[in-house]
Amino acid sequence: MPIEWLKKEEPEQMTQTLERDNQKDACDFLGTIASEEALSKMEVPAEESAREAASLPLRQAPEAPTTLMEEPPMLDSRPKQGSQSLLPDLGEAVAPPWPDKIEEEVQKASKLSLADWTEDKNRKEGHHTPTSGTQTPKTKAVSDANSDSGPDCMERGFSLSILDSLLRDHLEREDKGSSEATNQVPKPVVVVSSEVNPWSKTGGLGMVAGSYGYEFAMRGHRTMVVSPRYAEYDDAEQIGCAKVWLDGGEHEVQFFHLYQDLGDGNGTDYIFVGHDCFSREGLYCDPKDGKEYPDNLFRFSLLTVAALEAPLVLNIRGSTFGQDVLFIANDWQPGLLPVYHLYKYRLNDTYKNSRCVFVIHNIRSQGKYRLSKFPIDSYLGLPPEAIEFLQGEDRSLGNDCMNLLSAACLACDKVLTVSQDYAAEILNLKSGSGLNGILQQNGPNRMAGIINSIADDWNPRTDPHIPANYTRSNFDEGKAACKRELQKALGLHQDSGVALLGFSGRLCYQKWVPLITEILPWLLTDEPSGVLGRIQVILMGKGDDAFASHLSNAEKSHLGKVCGYVGFDPKVEHRLLAGCDFLLMPSRLPQMYAQAYGTVPIVHETEGFKASIVGLVDEQKDRETATGFQFCGFDVNCLKERMYQALEVYHKKRDLFKQIQINGLETNDNWTEVVSDANSEAGPENISMERVFSLSALDSLLQDPEGKAELRHQLELDELEDKRPKYTSHHLSKPVVVVSSEVNPWSKTGGLAMVAGSYGYEFAMRGHRTMVVSPRYGAYDGAHYVGYAKIWLDGREHEVQFFHLYQDLGDGNGTDYIFVGHDCFSRGGLYCDPNTGKEFPDNLYRFSLLTVAALEAPLVLNIRGSTFGQDVLFIANDWQTGLLPIYHLYKYRRNNTYKNSRCVFVIHNIGYQGKYRLSKFPIDGYLGLPPEAIQFLQGEDLNLGDDCMNLLSAACLASDRVLTVSPNYAVEIQSPEGGQGLHGILQEKGRQHRMAGILNGIADEWNPKTDPHIPVNYSIRTFEEGKAACKKELQRSLGLQEDPQAALLGFCGRLCYQKGVHLITEIIPWLLQNESSGVLGRVQIILMGKGDDLYANQLSNAENRNRGRVCGYVGFDPKVEHRMLAGCDFLLMPSQYEPCGLPQMYAQAYGTVPIVHETGGLKDSVSGLWDEERDRETATGFLFCGFDENMLMERMYQALEVFHKKKDLFKQIQINGLRKNYYWPQAIDEYERHLDWTLDGDAAVS
């Protein structure tokens, strides 16, 4: 077991906490890329302190306050990670701390020798080691003398609000006590990019490349930036040429050099590669037709080889850069650089000590070409074995695909992304664009994300582009002046009392432009409350013509109130941020600019925004911390709800609005002061909902309303960290009808029944008149006959009976349970014959009967004095009720019944879809539906072909809203990999804003303070003693050795492959082995469940071989599950996929630490321990990526090491979990919101 690995971050560890990594500084990474021997020779230039304190462009030392700057520059007083002291006082030079992070990351890769590298790559990916007999590149260079002439200091330009993370050298090692540290020389850095600001730029990539050139040089690196020469650049002089072999022949390129002198001996060498193929109007595409140039592979291969030659052959200011350099290649255009670097150089004893870092700026642009058209050997000049890196996959090209981006990820020494959040996204199926597997394989040593920050120029104290500079002390007057000038310049009414909203970004769907333009009429409508109406909006950007037209039309329709500026001017962007009251930013970085200018951002709640914005959730609690407003859900109603709150604060709570502005002004998000870690008081964390899953639930106290009320009262007294104000639905008068094939406690095979029972209780407790409709599988006590209905099905009428049971919840609330009686339901199993295990052949008939009966019940049953009536909301669950939205549409709404009703469909497991042959069950003759219903009912199936009826897909198409059982599962099922053939339908539902994921809550009885099934009750104050007593009793009762110091691990679930049982049984010998470190060995394991005989035998065998240390309980006892969660130290949930999962939330409520696979709802509900210092106050468990025993072992080792050797940290993780609030009162808020949005909107199909 490679112990070193356990102490480093995994990709999934990084993906959830990368946002917090920005306390470590970005370029720390690069200094340590050098070998240990090279590091020992490095030195910090003697003039370091003087240079830091001197006035330099964009890097000015703090100055004493002047008349224009009434206060000193802000410094973040928080200590950097790993530092024992705070930042210096104003009189000291402040070294920019942001780059240290990258140095740390690359250090891991830098210590690998070439042999280590190839062995590691082969081990992970199964590739053979490339031979060393590859020929050297057919290049011939001519160097010319170079002068030191060059332009004076050059300032960076600004993009459309995109500045990506920079890498810089870790030079602050002098305080570590090493005499050798003062003699360190930073490693030369060679940045390779297809564009570099200010010479060439289409977006953020050009900005980042320009920033790299400046920042690395400012940190003391000898720095070269290599980019194409698209035009004649002033002051760039030719200094040499090279002949590069490509496409079967030699091609000459010229090198043009420009030196940027930054003072104090620092500077950047810009090398522009000249060739006729670059001399075009567009960088990548023909501006006349918008199509990509057909020879782009040739162009950027030429750039790549030229970039590898430049450090070797160009004599720049007296010497070459040499072989001992670090390359930083950016995006797909130089994606071949790591491959050439390996095969043409390193394996031929050139660049032996160099390393290559590859930065992904946009994973969707990958550089794909046909291998048959561009052969690896004859076109690229690479050996045939390079196919292992270059061959990719593509739906159109198949195996004939060459993928430059994936090749770079495989062959480079380190993969970086442009933000921590983006690193998280591209590691999953949804956002990885087919490369998530490769990126996950790179492992913790070769994959990282570094958060973006903002440039020094974004400072209202010194910004030359705004009409009035201001500081925190005079920002009221400064912003008022900027607002007046902005209104005047853009033709808006000069009204200081209006709320001025701004948007600056690309005009595209991703930036949510259609949502903003859609709500403009609503924003500008005068209404009595005085919240809406007094508003002005500025929209600036360029992009899609359709969205550009939206802007122009909006301005014409609202002259003086709306400015639609089609185009982009960086100066206007600065003025916009200074003059606006709010910034609308439903995607990324400008929110940090806004806060720096006292402008309040209204943003979409994503992981990236959680790192930099504290949302106003509770006005009292968040008053001193909130810096903006966040909304969740890809939905216009979500945006409108948060907009209304923001405008209400602006117009009616001016003191609160001013405080939010001040909070933002005090936030340090620039390059010198990196965004602080998530340990800051960022306000309540959004707890969504999750469904109750499979074996993990004891029957709720559904028949004991008084007991249930007492548990709910007890919960309200608990010290849970997230107690947001309860959401108040504006449709509480709307009756809710829940339809499910099972409902707890009367019928249950798994989580669906638990959810249906919870719906029945929770909606009624909120004030809805609530009905739950389910089959009558048996004679249920207390359920009385109340009526019948005749239903046409299968060519004739069938009578069903309705049985009613009322659950009185007190205070006028209660639930009506309606059980549908018919002979077809009176069997031993719910869905399958218990004797054969096969599905009942008449299930389509049975659940069609249930569906129509559920639609009839609200109309015909007089319950407690009245019917539910037509104006109701249906919640249908899973495929068994999939026909409900179809009947609802064709049999009722189109016949003027249920005209104002709506139907929500909930997917609990997309793997079960309800597929039948259309030819066997005709739509008209069997189901009694019109022929046109085929548009919804016809699905696809490999076996059935077009003769397939798919109930789940029909429900998704015809329902008014589709919900799933966790937010992450909602993402997964919209991907080809997780959608089980329905991803296209669900993606379209998402585009219509009718798709969402909600994590359900857990029942109140899962509370260690009140649980009657555990030997000792306990609270967060007494959990140590309580859990110790529960652990002792659990060990005694299950025949385990009574050892309080043993780590007690528990598993409770179905015994099947999907639950990862085989992963646990395979590692049991490893867990129980004694080893010198004291981490393994002192372990006990409890495995409980029922299912496949294969896994049941494995449990029995494990117990027989390890008596007293392993308990294999084949079966299920809900009381034992409660005792396990109270007595165990860890809960294991290594599920292959988990739509939701509840045991991990039960575990946290009991102070038991979950170890889970990062998938589905597990990812939504467990906060991982990635960095022990950073995550100490937030981690609630351990997550591993990859459905593999080795990945589980790595995380298990970390968890056990914490348990045995870091008791204080383990206790803190337990406390963090005990403080979590996953109970239904929080969760039901999200359902109520979605029900409101569904009822407020139009029907999906009319």
From TrEMBL:
User: Looking at the record's lineage, which domain of life comes first?
Assistant: Eukaryota
Comp. bias regions, Polar residues: 129-149
Where does the record place the region Disordered?
1-23, 39-153
Q: Which residues form the Starch synthase catalytic domain?
A: 189-440, 736-988
Bias kind Basic and acidic residues: ranges: 1-11
- Asked if the record carries the keyword Glycosyltransferase, the reply is yes
The entry's keywords = Amyloplast, Glycosyltransferase, Plastid, Transferase
- Keyword field contains Glycosyltransferase: yes
Which Gene3D superfamilies does the entry mention? Glycogen Phosphorylase B (3.40.50.2000)
Localization annotation: Plastid, Amyloplast
| InterPro entries reported for this sequence | GS/SS (IPR011835), Starch_synth_cat_dom (IPR013534)
According to the UniProt entry, the coiled-coil residues are none
Q: Which NCBIfam families match?
A: glgA
Family, as annotated: Belongs to the glycosyltransferase 1 family. Bacterial/plant glycogen synthase subfamily.
Q: Which PANTHER family match?
A: ALPHA AMYLASE DOMAIN-CONTAINING PROTEIN, GRANULE-BOUND STARCH SYNTHASE 1, CHLOROPLASTIC/AMYLOPLASTIC
- State the name under which the record lists this protein: Starch synthase catalytic domain-containing protein
The record lists the organism as Durusdinium trenchii
